Design the sequence.
């Protein structure tokens, strides 16, 4: 479509240029003035066409720049709102992690206390086992443990004394979100 319009415009420019040249020649200016009028008119019309085309292109370019500025402004607003949302999410995650850490820390302290109590209880049982094997009678309501039980208690006491008790925490998650609900703990000697 644009090529057809351009061809029609060029045809019109040539027609107008020949018309001016013919008018100058018929007015008695001669064939030199007619050729000069033809070339001058053709040059003028093409220069005018180029000037108008540049004006149209400049206007379209300005409109495109304005659209780009509006899109950039919209993008900047979306970027700012996304940044604010990400900062809020980061703060929320940090607070949640801190609260989970506090809960986990308190549970670990409770487990340490229980392990310490278990160590004290084992010390008491071990002393009872050693006393029962040496004295040959039971006190405190305990029955006579076997040598295997005494060895097991000695192993546990030794592990507690030398800090060879490992605590393993296994997260228990809810599906499908995979969000940690609580931790299951295991201790290994």
Sequence:
């Amino acid at each position: 479509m644009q090529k057809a319009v351009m061809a029609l415009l060029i045809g019109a420019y040539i027609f107008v240029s020949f018309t001016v040249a013919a008018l100058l020649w018929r007015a008695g200016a001669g064939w030199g003035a007619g050729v000069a009028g033809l070339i001058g008119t053709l040059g003028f019309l093409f220069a005018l066409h180029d000037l108008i085309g540049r004006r149209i292109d400049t206007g379209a370019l300005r409109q495109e720049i304005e659209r780009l500025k509006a899109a950039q402004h919209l993008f900047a607003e979306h970027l700012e709102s996304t940044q604010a949302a990400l900062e809020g999410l980061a703060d929320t995650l940090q607070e949640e992690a801190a609260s989970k850490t506090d809960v986990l820390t308190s549970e670990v302290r409770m487990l340490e206390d229980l392990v310490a109590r278990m160590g004290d209880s084992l010390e008491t049982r071990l002393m009872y086992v050693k006393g029962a094997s040496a004295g040959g009678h039971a006190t405190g309501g305990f029955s006579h443990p076997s040598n295997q039980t005494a060895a097991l208690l000695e192993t546990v006491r030794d592990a507690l004394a030398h800090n060879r008790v490992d605590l393993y925490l296994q997260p228990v998650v809810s599906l499908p979100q995979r969000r940690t609900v609580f931790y299951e703990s295991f201790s290994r000697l």
Remarks:
- The radius of gyration is 49 Å.
- The longest helix spans residues 31-135.
